[in-house]
């Protein structure tokens, strides 16, 4: 495809929480169905993934996509890991997939006009994931 995916050098091993849309919908239905309105916080996260993991999901099945690493002083350098054990202990089963969800998002963007006019679908997903696509 001849694309260049730019990844912040300092971000490759940073973790970010990922929530599959199906898990989000199922979690809301679970909360309403079980009447879980006790004021406690329950984290809902499908997977804590590194930027490198997200990048690999985008580029591995697409041989024409190349990457380059760049540095920046602006990018936040903290990882964010969200624990969902309390929600699991209430009986919720996370079934979403980082890989399947990101690939479906790319396919959806390909089939629509979502994103900037000059963006490829992979670039739009990367932009939404906190990376920078060029």
Q: Concise description?
A:
The protein has 134 residues and is α+β, with helices and mostly antiparallel strands. Helices cover 37% and strands 16% of the residues.
Average pLDDT number: 78
Count the domains: 1
Rg, Cα atoms, Å: 17 Å
Could you name the CATH topology?
UDP-galactose 4-epimerase, domain 1
Task: Count every beta strand, where a strand is a DSSP E run of 2 or more residues.
Answer: 5
Please report the number of helical segments.
Answer: 5
Strand fraction band? 15-25%
Q: What topology, given as strand order, has the largest sheet?
A: 4-1-5
The CATH class turns out to be: Alpha Beta
CATH architecture: Alpha-Beta Complex
Stretches with pLDDT under 50, minimum 5 residues: 124-134
- What is the approximate shape? globular
Describe the largest sheet: 3 strands, mixed
Terminal residue distance: 13 Å
The class by helix and strand makeup works out as: alpha+beta
**What is the string of helix and strand elements?**
EEHEHEHHHE
What do we call the CATH homologous superfamily? UDP-galactose 4-epimerase, domain 1
- Amount of helix: 25-40%
Describe the structure.
With 134 residues, the chain is α+β, with helices and mostly antiparallel strands. It has one domain: UDP-galactose 4-epimerase, domain 1 (Alpha-Beta Complex), CATH 3.90.25.10. The protein is built from five helices and five strands. The chain has helices at residues 21-34, 51-59, 85-89, 98-110, 121-128; strands at 3-8, 15-18, 47-50, 65-70, 132-133. Strands 4-1-5 form a three-stranded mixed beta sheet. A two-stranded antiparallel ribbon has the order 2-3. α4 packs across α5 (121-128). The radius of gyration is 17 Å and the shape is globular. The two termini are 13 Å apart. The relative contact order is 0.28.
């Amino acid at each position: 495809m001849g694309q260049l995916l730019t990844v912040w050098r300092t971000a490759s091993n940073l973790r970010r929480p990922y929530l599959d849309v199906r898990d989000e919908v199922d979690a809301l239905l679970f909360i309403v169905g079980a009447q879980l309105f006790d004021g406690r916080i329950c984290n809902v996260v499908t997977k804590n993934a590194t930027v490198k993991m997200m990048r690999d999901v985008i580029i591995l099945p697409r041989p024409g996509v190349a990457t380059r690493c760049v540095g920046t002083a602006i990018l936040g350098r903290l990882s964010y890991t969200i624990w969902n054990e309390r929600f699991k202990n209430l009986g919720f089963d996370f079934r979403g997939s980082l890989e399947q969800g990101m690939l479906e998002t790319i396919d959806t963007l390909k089939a629509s006009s979502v994103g900037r006019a000059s963006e490829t679908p992979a670039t739009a997903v990367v932009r939404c994931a906190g990376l920078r696509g060029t």
